[in-house]
User: Which sequence fits this backbone?
């Protein structure tokens, strides 16, 4: 039997630890347009984030070639603490995922057009960060992979589900979901506050997190990541917390 919906994006709440985030509902009639990413070579100068040393390592691995920016990884937000929505607890932590058969679940309940389109763009085998959101200490806790590409989200037709959508029709479903499987925990918890520190530094010196959607599209529970963004954030697990 399917468990209660726990991932959401309809009026998603920005993280409590993110003071710049606006708590607002994204109108479905006027969905957000995806911002264009611009490839910018970082200027000379010092970087408090230490990203230049990371970039040198990456360049030595790739022969110094700068890759074209495309979205090939993802960040998925889920709430690890109990919260009732229309009488249903939407809590779903990474430990809940690990406890599922085959450590696999469908990622349902997304009710934002831009986030839905990101779900539909996911490809089999791509990896995503599992991000604990709307909690005391939000941040990245693990890695999952896409094991089934987008298909209709059954909760849109379930009147008992918090994410029921009476305007959606089975012959032309509005909403989609994917299946994800647990890969591993990150070597350490990577908090939002630490990622934001790097984001602010990269905005100044042209580092890979300068346009990260975690800060430019805070409300979205499904977010794309470039290869550089994913690799840089992943490199943080080997560093000591600040």
Assistant:
């Amino acid at each position: 039997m399917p468990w209660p919906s726990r991932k959401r994006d309809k009026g998603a709440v920005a993280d409590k630890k993110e003071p710049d985030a606006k708590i607002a509902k994204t109108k479905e009639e006027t969905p957000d347009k995806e911002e264009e990413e611009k490839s910018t070579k970082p200027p000379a100068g010092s970087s408090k984030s230490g990203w230049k040393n990371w970039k040198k390592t990456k360049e030595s691995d790739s022969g110094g070639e700068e890759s074209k920016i495309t979205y090939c990884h993802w960040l998925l937000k889920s709430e690890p603490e109990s919260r009732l929505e229309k009488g249903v607890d939407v809590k779903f932590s990474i430990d809940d995922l690990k406890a599922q058969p085959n450590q696999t679940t469908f990622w349902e309940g997304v009710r934002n057009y831009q986030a839905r389109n990101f779900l539909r763009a996911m490809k089999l085998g791509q990896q995503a960060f599992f991000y604990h959101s709307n909690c005391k200490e939000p941040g990245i806790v693990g890695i999952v992979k896409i094991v089934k590409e987008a298909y209709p989200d059954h909760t849109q037709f379930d009147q008992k589900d918090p994410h029921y959508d009476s305007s959606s029709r089975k012959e032309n479903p509005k909403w989609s979901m994917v299946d994800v499987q647990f890969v591993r925990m990150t070597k350490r918890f990577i908090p939002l506050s630490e990622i934001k520190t790097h984001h602010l530094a990269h905005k100044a010196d042209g580092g890979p997190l300068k346009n990260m959607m975690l800060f430019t599209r805070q409300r979205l529970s499904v977010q794309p990541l470039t290869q550089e963004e994913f690799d840089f954030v992943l490199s943080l697990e080997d560093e000591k917390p600040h």
Observations:
- The mean pLDDT is 82.
- The helical segments are 51-62, 94-98, 113-121, 192-205, 213-216, 227-235.
